[in-house]
Amino acid sequence: MPRGNTKALDSAATAAQGIVQRFCNGYSSHMKSATITEAKNGLSALIDRVRAGESIVITDRGIPVAVLEPATTLVDVEDRLARLERAGVIRRGTGGPPLELIMQPGPRLPEGASLLEALLEERRESNR
What is the CATH classification number for the domain harbouring 14? Predict the structure, then answer.
């Protein structure tokens, strides 16, 4: 059995247990909650709970600011884009890519020239 400060370990385990037993009020009452301090001090325990499939709301002074969720419950890209479009954050293009631009060969550097130097020079010129 490992020796060490078992009192501190017991205290941390009790604190982590307390974190996941509390509930948020309002819209996410079905989720467990933790304050930022509790999350910082008991992150390993919270990650274990998330791995087990739970979602945990992180609060700052009682206001939800983040959600820890299992990676398997992440929203697919198309759904996320649709939500952002509905919220007016983005506007998706309606046409295809400009094929004539894509089919053109890219610019060529002179023999022995540095791509990095050419890029930096272009940026300097655009800032004038």
Answer: 3.40.1620.10
